[in-house]
């Protein structure tokens, strides 16, 4: 779980085209918002089921692997499908000068339960955003602005990858199945010395073509994706094993210790040891 974080910062909301208002995830209980919420919201339903109720509209059921985009200031309520059910719901609220035109471009995705084929990527981006804001404070908000934009583009990409057209523009055949196989290979071997040329060939692509398709679909390079997987696993190891050493974590990730420490600090703003001490 990622406890609710309110992103409090000074005057940057007047400068950033997009800024994060709050982010988190938890077992969602019944929540009423008769006046709506002051920022736009993206919800990710990871497990369990829940209902969103908006006056004048049919109820929206969110099941595992679905998402919902809600505009700011729209009255609503949401709650688990059954009172005894655990509903793991992630959320990020955002606003800024660029938010309205961005959502206008995505208006077809608003106010409906979206099946998300790249759900784990979006959830990973949500976790990364939470860690960034929780550990870095005010200095993180420029990077957070980039990442919330990346999340919305990832959502849009996932929704259009299996469609023949978007607003009358014909799309090429989707490379998603082959890319998914490549991503599974990365997940299975991220802690090894993984040659991306071999991953590309396993997916049936040249290394250059694979790199282009990966960036288009996932919003980051394969190397960045692998690093993100390693950093997420590092935080899990540090949280779940209080006595584990930094050297042991690096070894489990297939990384040299000094490089691991440098990448961890670049990602989260503090060393693995300080992170462990704060956990």
Could you walk me through the main structural features you see in this protein, from its secondary elements to its overall organization?
This protein is of the alpha+beta class and 279 residues long. The chain has 3 domains: 2-160, Regulatory protein AraC (Jelly Rolls, Sandwich); 173-219, Arc Repressor Mutant, subunit A; 223-278, Homeodomain-like (Arc Repressor Mutant, subunit A), CATH 1.10.10. The longest helix is centred in the middle third of the chain and has 20 residues, at 141-160. A 6-stranded antiparallel beta sheet has the order 1-2-9-4-7-10, covered by helices on one side. A 4-stranded antiparallel beta sheet has the order 3-8-5-6, with no helix packed on it. 44% of the residues lie in helices and 20% in strands. A hairpin with a 6-residue loop joins strand 5 and strand 6 (60-62). The protein contains 10 helices and 12 strands. The protein has helices at residues 99-105, 119-136, 141-160, 176-189, 196-203, 207-218, 222-240, 246-252, 257-268, 272-278, and strands at 2-6, 19-27, 31-33, 40-47, 50-53, 60-62, 66-70, 76-80, 88-95, 114-115, 165-166, 169-170. Pfam families: AraC_binding, HTH_18. It comes from Paenibacillus woosongensis. This is HTH araC/xylS-type domain-containing protein. Residues 180-278 form the HTH araC/xylS-type domain. InterPro entries: AraC-bd, Homeodomain-like_sf, HTH-like, HTH_AraC, HTH_AraC-typ_CS.
